[in-house]
Amino acid sequence: xxxxxxxxxxxxxxxxxxxxxxxxxxxxxxxxxxxxxxxxxxxxxxxxxxxxxxxxxxxxxxxxxxxxxxxxxxxxxxxxxxxxxxxxxxxxxxxxxxxxxxxxxxxxxxxxxxxxxxxxxxxxxxxxxxxxxxxxxxxxxxxxxxxxxxxxxxxxxxxxxxxxxxxxxxxxxxxxxxxxxxxxxxxxxxxxxxxxxxxxxxxxxxxxxxxxxxxxxxxxxxxxxxxxxxxxxxxxxxxxxxxxxxxxxxxxxxxxxxxxxxxxxxxxxxxxxxxxxxxxxxxxxxxxxxxxxxxxxxxxxxxxxxxxxxxxxxxxxxxxxxxxxxxxxxxxxxxxxxxxxxxxxxxxxxxxxxxxxxxxxxxxxxxxxxxxxxxxxxxxxxxxxxxxxxxxxxxxxxxxxxxxxxxxxxxxxxxxxxxxxxxxxxxxxxxxxxxxxxxxxxxxxxxxxxxx
Length: 452
What we know:
Blueprint: E1 11-12, E2 15-16, E3 29-32, E4 40-41, E5 59-61, E6 67-70, E7 79-84, E8 104-106, E9 108-112, E10 122-126, E11 136-144, E12 147-156, E13 162-170, E14 174-175, E15 182-187, E16 192-196, E17 203-210, E18 213-224, E19 226-234, E20 245-255, E21 264-267, E22 270-272, E23 278-283, E24 291-297, E25 303-311, E26 317-321, E27 330-333, E28 339-342, E29 349-352, H1 355-358, E30 363-373, E31 376-381, E32 384-388, E33 390-392, E34 403-406, E35 418-426, H2 434-448
Antiparallel strand pairs: 1-2, 3-35, 4-5, 5-6, 6-24, 7-23, 8-11, 9-10, 10-20, 11-19, 12-18, 12-20, 13-15, 13-19, 14-18, 15-16, 17-18, 21-22, 23-35, 24-34, 25-30, 25-35, 26-27, 26-34, 27-28, 28-29, 29-33, 30-31, 31-32
């Protein structure tokens, strides 16, 4: 009986049974910089695993248990971050616990509360000095671009059966063509919005979710970009002695005119979404964070560089390079999103620029560059490529000092905001094939939540 079985790399849904370890063939030198928490350590010796999201990373091991990169300087260590594979949409720094310092409290205090109707909620209570409209507030401010945005929050009413939310453009910003505090008041008794003051292009909605809690959704149009203050308020007009309180639950602020599935933000390094797998990242502060390779990557001739990362339009991101110089051998993203590899400073480089590459100028991306000869190089960005490089000089031999650093801030270059792992390949006597590039690209895309 012929069962039609085949042996080879097989794709199984979005994840597949392949890893960069399979690239180690012949005399190749492969530096596998892909990771998950089981490969990240809080000490340079690689003996103590990191505690979790937000932990500083001092060392990383590869699948063999070999240390591949470190950072001895405490202040220069990137942090481990956990993100939904679908991307981070919730802009709030902390979406539930309004007791922390990131939520500024004005004439009010916050205490924990038992869950209500299955929702994690906190209690915001007015101070004794309160006595005028919308006194007690917990607030955060964000710089928002023009366009529609949506704010959704779980709220309980005050003693007057009112739920009060305030959106305040500051520093010249405007919402719906208006400036100043824009209050929204919902009466839970009449189930109507008694005040809705978000200007043109706005809409509001309220849904009872049980236990006296309501889900309030505000959609508003930022007509002048700038800083917008979001305030959860308590109307204490009739209670100058203070002591009034409301329950506050999960919040989400996102771009667009409709609310999407809730993402829990425990911190900027810990964002999760129910039903969506998480991806692992290293977060660089783009000031002094970077990591050094345990062994410098020093190919004698051809080579392949690959990294999953985030990039923002207008920024110059230094992905790989040498810690002592912005010249020499490196891989960078330009301010317009193009990809550059330099074998030996700008005199010997290849650039890859196209509409498909610049389309990935903002957000997660997989960038791969492969040098296959003195004047031959091709590049890949997400699902696009190969694209022949525009050459300046010769691509081989590369700078003898090679590459020894990731995400270094040097000269006019910054680190990628987030890194999802990378691979460096010196092919030796076994050239990297197109099929291997495809597997590598899919692997890094899966690790970084990138759609090809």
